[in-house]
Specification:
This protein is an alpha+beta fold and 274 residues long. Helix content is 50%, strand content 12%. It has 8 helices and 5 strands. Strands 1-5-4-3-2 form a 5-stranded antiparallel β-sheet, with helices on one face. β2 and β3 form a beta hairpin. α2 crosses α3. It is globular and about 75 Å long.
């Protein structure tokens, strides 16, 4: 009998396969293949994914790309806004409370603005930078962000769409400045050496490009960790958050009675021998 895959397994397999494929083409040739939206809809239908879900995912991706202008920093290092969207089979209010609890307790973020549709979180004041520097565990990855926006929209009474958007413009600016400073310093050394020997002038351009390339790789690694942290939050909220809030089953016992506990005998002093 042929093994059938459940929707959750299909999602994990397709996500992992797309990551491997994208990684291969990033390090490969320049002729990267492209797929039209209609072909993507047909492929998703073959995997059991409805067309409206594919259209919504493409719309979310397009809105994420247009939310940030294509500046010089964007062209050199990439986007500074990372977005994770997930449709959760939980009510809107309970999902939002669970996500806000995870952002506050697990990631150490502070709420800055709260509305009916969502909330805005950030690492806090100067203490946030100190906490980020002293966080050697790596569990509070979102402390590296400038802010995290949470939006939860109800689809129906039992489903909602959770949207997490992380602003990492501070990280991109730090890596951009670091790459520029290191590149300028190394280039100045080659220029000084080139005054004595002109062959050293050939190393000016590589000295400018090498630190920027290394900082770009470091920034991509940071954004990958932040994306993974956002996905982990959405993975956690897909589980029923009410399980941790339900009290233990007391059965038919009255308050104050502990099951299986024998009564303590009353203490009496032994009779004295006359």
């Amino acid at each position: 009998m042929e093994k059938r895959l459940r929707p959750a397994e299909v999602e994990m397999i397709l996500r992992r396969a797309s990551e491997l494929n994208a990684r291969r083409w990033e390090r490969g040739s320049e002729d990267v293949p492209s797929v039209s939206p209609e072909v993507l809809v047909q492929v998703a239908a073959a995997a059991g994914i409805p067309e409206q879900d594919v259209r919504r995912a493409m719309w979310d991706l397009a809105s994420e790309k247009t939310a940030e202008p294509h500046s010089l920093a964007w062209k050199l290092y990439g986007p500074a806004r990372l977005r994770a969207v997930r449709e959760v089979d939980r009510p809107q209010g309970r999902t939002r409370e669970h996500l806000e609890g995870l952002l506050r307790l697990e990631q150490g973020l502070k709420v800055r603005r709260k509305t009916e549709m969502g909330s805005l979180w950030d690492p806090g004041d100067e203490l946030g930078v100190v906490r980020r520097a002293l966080d050697f565990s790596g569990d509070r990855t979102l402390l590296k962000t400038r802010s995290v926006e949470l939006r939860v929209e109800g689809v129906d009474e039992e489903r909602c769409a959770a949207n997490l958007t992380a602003d990492v413009s501070n990280q991109r600016a730090e890596y951009l400045s670091l790459g520029g400073i290191l590149g300028a310093t190394l280039a100045a050394l080659f220029i000084l050496a080139g005054m004595q020997n002109g062959l050293f002038l050939l190393g000016v351009l590589p000295a400018l490009a090498a630190p920027a390339f290394c900082c770009r790789i470091a920034y991509r690694r940071t954004t990958t960790e932040i994306r993974r942290a956002l996905d982990d939050l959405l993975d956690a909220v897909e589980q029923d958050p009410s399980q941790a809030e339900q009290p233990l089953d007391r059965g038919d016992r009255q308050p104050g009675n502990i099951k299986g506990l024998k009564p303590i005998p009353r203490f009496t002093s032994p009779p004295r021998d006359e």
